[in-house]
Amino acid sequence: MLQETVIDLVDRQLVNALQIFPRISWMQLGKILGYDATTLARRWARLRNEGLVWTVCYQQPEHLEVELPAMALIEVDVRAGQREQVVAALAPLDEVIEIDRTSGSRDLLLTVVHSSIATADAFVARSIASIPGIRATRTRFAHTLYKDGARSHLDALSADVLLALRRAAEGFAGEPSVPTPLLVDVMRSMLPDARRPAPEIAAELGISTTSVTRAIHRLFGSPWFTAKTDFAHHALGYTTAASLWYRVPTPELAAVGIDVAGVPGVRMSAAILDRMNLAITVWLRHTHDLESLLTRIEHAHPRIELCETWLIPSVAKRSGAVLTDDGRFSHQISTSHALAPIGAQRRER
After folding, report:
1. What contacts 250, CB < 8 A, 6 or more positions away?
2. Residue limits of the Transcription regulator AsnC/Lrp ligand binding domain (predicted)?
């Protein structure tokens, strides 16, 4: 069980550092953290082999001159005793990027990304609502994402170390580029592991290691590309999560959404096209921490109204990664909808 796994300060610092710069070399990271590079590599391998940490990478269309994809939050009601069968049917769908098991009147909360509101609606009707065991679905569309998991980090490093890591990441980044076929191919090859060695990717794609290395540097310099280090949250001290739904006066929505995104523990903050127009996901070390978090938000923004609160006892899929019952990484589902070569140019070799 996750609670039996020993995660010490060095592990936490390692995970936090790779959240800031997922591609940093062990030698460079060892110098910044003050630990032996071999020790860090061995610890990462152990954590990864046990499914406690993993990496994902994906394209962020909001940084491209294209129409934003539709992001929908789907509440799902399931017939008694059939929740896990439904989860098993949902998990392979790459458009379903997150699956939360929830408390209260709904059984699951899904995050779905599609090319447009119309296609997302059709996808829900065709591929989700028709799954045996599902009684009902309710869809709410997000129009602005103020924070997602890629910008949700641990707090295990000093300010000096964080600065050194950010400088190292800036030095690694190459010239920004549009998503050419080569860059998309390399990004796809990094889906199983954002730290995957360049020679291994080169052998898979049948191109030179130099071309892959140059492409990786350009990816990390391009604002449309994101590489993220994630972890089994129970292993690092988070016992549960909660989904909070607020009604915010429209003129204040953006300011509140951005401000709340900076509150410790907040993993997601999104504006919703609904009467409840702000959705927030928070991670909690203890359930009683929720009260102080709610108080903090409401004191800062007295005109907002908390409409619903759902606990999230466990997560079945997060950012395209399918998780085991105890929250460990199982396997990655290719998020092909986010990896299309938009604006693709001539393949470079």
Report:
1. 277
2. 74-142
Question: Do 256 and 244 touch, CB atoms closer than 8 A?
Answer: no
List the strands of the sheet with 266-272, edge to edge.
Answer: 305-312, 240-247, 278-284, 266-272, 134-147, 70-78, 108-114, 96-101, 314-318, 321-323, 329-332
What is the C-alpha to C-alpha distance for residues 126 and 122, in angstroms, rounded to an integer?
6
pTM (two decimals): 0.86
State phi, psi for 193 to the nearest 5 degrees: -165, 110
- Please identify which residue in the block is written with the tokens 């060095």: 10
Alpha helices in the chain (DSSP H): 9-20, 26-33, 37-49, 83-90, 117-123, 159-172, 181-189, 198-205, 209-221, 253-261, 289-300
> Which of 114-125 are b and which e, b meaning 16 or more Cβ less than 10 Å from the residue's Cβ?
bbebeebbebbe
Q: Phi, psi at residue 122, to the nearest 5°?
A: -65, -40
Residue carrying structure tokens 């539709």? 70
Q: Which amino acid is at 265?
A: G
Cα 75 from Cα 203, distance rounded (Å): 43
Per DSSP, what are the bridge partners of residue 278? 246, 271
**Is 186:215 a contact under the CB 8 Å cutoff?**
yes
H-helix or E-strand containing 229? Answer: strand 225-231
Q: Would you say 112 and 120 are in contact if contact means Cβ atoms under 8 Å apart?
A: yes
How do residues 148-193 score in pLDDT, each as one tens digit? Answer: 865 667 889 999 999 999 999 999 999 999 889 999 999 999 987 8
Half-sphere CA count of 131, side-chain side, radius 13 A: 25
CA 327 to chain centre: 14
- Neighbouring CB atoms inside 10 A of 343's CB total 12
What percent of the chain shows pLDDT beyond 70? 90
pLDDT of 321-344, one tens digit each? Answer: 999 988 999 988 865 444 333 333
SS3 321: strand
